[in-house]
Amino acid sequence: MLQSEFTLLGDALWLDLVNTARGRTPHPTDLLPEEAAMERWARAQRLHTNGDSLLLLDVLRLRDRLTLLAEALQGGLQPPAGSIAAINEQLARGDGCHQLTRVGGEWHLRFAPMRRAGVLEAIAQSAASSLADPLLFVRRCSGDGCSLFFADDSPNQSRRWCSATVCGREVRVERRRGLLR
């Protein structure tokens, strides 16, 4: 299996974008230094550009707003107004209409897009879904030196690491050796 140049946790697309400026080392390098890197990240996420060229400045601006959102949610604070405005700005770009659909015997009003979401719109939809889910919590990894964010939707919100096989493994090994209590 090929190793990706990006840490893709798969929990939430928007957190994967935020994590491009974070890492498992004290001073991680920015994984989106140029437009080509942004395009590789979008392909790794299987995102569709809808024929639009991605402007790195727009992506980095949205990443900054979403980083503030992740930090606020991780700290149990209210989402920053600027983050909500950035999400709503991207969501407003979507074309579509509302449709009434029957699910499990109940009627639901849902938005049906006319086209596949572009990169920034898909990231905004991911952030909006996370905010709307009362059972999902944003956490920062407890691993030494790791600053990655992840979405914790475990039954008792007890997940501590971005990856049990990477950051969690180190702690378990040290605990077995008697170095941690």
Main pleated sheet: 2 strands, antiparallel
Helical proportion, percent range: 25-40%
Q: Cα distance, first to last residue?
A: 35 Å
> How many beta-strand runs?
4
Question: How would you describe the overall organization of this protein?
Answer:
It contains six helices and four strands, in the order ααααββαββα. The chain has 181 residues and is of the alpha+beta class. It has a two-stranded antiparallel sheet with strand order 1-2. Strands 3-4 form a two-stranded antiparallel ribbon. Helix 4 (81-91) crosses helix 5 (119-132). The protein is globular and about 60 Å long. The chain starts with 12 loop residues before the first helix and ends with a helix.
Summarize the topology.
Elements: H1 13-18, H2 35-44, H3 56-74, H4 81-91, E1 96-103, E2 106-113, H5 119-132, E3 137-140, E4 149-152, H6 167-177
Helix pairs in contact: 3-4, 4-5
